[in-house]
Write a structure and sequence with these properties.
mainly beta, four-stranded antiparallel β-sheet, 10 strands
């Protein structure tokens, strides 16, 4: 005797096989895109000076160091105002990421884009050191889409 198919709904859970919406596809594409810098700002704080980099996605990883001289493409020296030069390389950023120089202040006379190379965007920060000899202390923290560079007095 052959079984007769039931017209009652199945009690077995069914997987949702609907395709993603256009909005979900756009969000997925944006998540896959490397972050791009959208704004750079220099401000005074109670402890010193702050350079804030804002990105259009989660803040990237970075490498940082004081340098005697800052270099751009092909190792050519780049002149930048200040006594001390902090180089920060943001890792895994959009290769088209650039920014306009922010308004300077007395201790941070210049922040400049140096170059993009293999997923890294290098920037230079010129700092006026009060005594001219010691590299000013600094802290770098990330907060959501921002990288905060606090240069101590």
């Amino acid at each position: 005797m052959a079984a007769t198919p039931s017209l009652a709904p199945s009690k077995t859970p069914q997987a949702d096989v609907s395709s993603p919406s256009e909005e979900e596809e756009e969000e997925g594409e944006q998540a896959a895109q490397p972050p791009k810098v959208t704004e750079v700002e220099v401000t005074d704080t109670a402890q010193g000076d702050r350079v804030t980099f804002t990105f259009d996605a989660a803040a990237p990883d970075y490498l940082d160091s004081y340098e005697k001289e800052l270099n751009g493409p092909e190792g050519r020296p780049i002149e930048i105002e200040g006594d001390k030069f902090l180089r920060v390389a943001f890792i895994g950023v959009d290769p088209e990421s650039h920014f306009s120089p922010p308004s300077p202040n007395k201790r941070v006379p210049e922040v400049r884009h140096l170059m993009n190379f293999e997923g890294e965007m290098s920037i230079g920060i010129g700092i006026v050191a009060p005594d001219g000899a010691a590299d000013p202390a600094y802290d770098i923290t990330t907060k959501g889409t921002q990288v905060l560079i606090d240069i101590k007095e």
